[in-house]
Amino acid sequence: MSETAMITTVTAGETRTFDDLGRIVIPKSIRKALNIHEGDQFDVIQDGDIIKLVRCVPACLACDDDTDVQRMNKTFLCGECRDAVSKTLVEKELDDDDTKK
Ligand SMILES: [Zn+2]
């Protein structure tokens, strides 16, 4: 088998070009579909001729746990800390309502 015959080309999206610093823009449609935002971190993995981007799972900003971590505005919180923040916000709203009366 010739070397050219072994190359498999898979085109499933938009063609992008690396710039002189080695950067490439991930299409907006993919970023939106995968909920990718500026500042998200990825491991770049070489697998033969394929480059894989694997999103780094961030730890909770408040407790450093990495279970059930989700983005909240520009930070990441675990479920327990999200509940605590929500509860605090509700209590603050109730306090604010009391002081207005
Ligand atoms: Zn937490």
Précis, in short:
With 101 residues, the chain is α+β, with helices and mostly antiparallel strands. 28% of the residues lie in helices and 18% in strands. The protein has 2 domains: 11-56, Pemi-like Protein 1, Chain: D (Ribbon), CATH 2.10.260; 58-101, no CATH class.
What does this protein structure show overall?
It contains two helices and four strands; from the N terminus they run αββββα. The chain has helices spanning about 30-35, 80-100, and strands at about 40-45, 50-55, 70, 75. A two-stranded antiparallel sheet has the order 1-2. Strands 3-4 form a two-stranded antiparallel sheet. By secondary structure, it is of the alpha+beta class. The protein has two domains: about 10-55, Pemi-like Protein 1, Chain: D, CATH 2.10.260; about 60-100, no CATH class. The protein is elongated and about 60 Å long. The N and C termini lie far apart (about 85 Å). It binds zinc ion. Zinc ion binds near residues 77 and 81.
Secondary structure blueprint with pairings:
Layout: H1 28-33, E1 42-47, E2 50-55, E3 70-72, E4 75-77, H2 79-100
Antiparallel strand pairs: 1-2, 3-4
The structure holds zinc ion.
The distinct bound ligands, ions and cofactors come out as:
zinc ion
Q: What is the strand arrangement across the widest sheet?
A: 1-2
Low-confidence parts: none
- SSE string: HEEEEH
Net shape: elongated
Helical proportion?
25-40%
| Terminal-residue CA separation | 84 Å
Q: Determine and state the CATH class of the largest domain.
A: Mainly Beta
Radius of gyration: 22 Å
Q: What is the number of beta strands?
A: 4
Q: Treating each run of at least 4 consecutive H or I residues as one helix, how many helices?
A: 2
Proportion in β-strands: 15-25%
In the CATH hierarchy, the architecture of the largest domain is Ribbon
CATH topology of the largest domain: Pemi-like Protein 1, Chain: D
Oligomer: single chain
Main sheet: strands, sense, barrel: 2 strands, antiparallel
Which whole number gives the mean pLDDT? 84
Query: Which class do the helix and strand fractions yield?
Result: alpha+beta
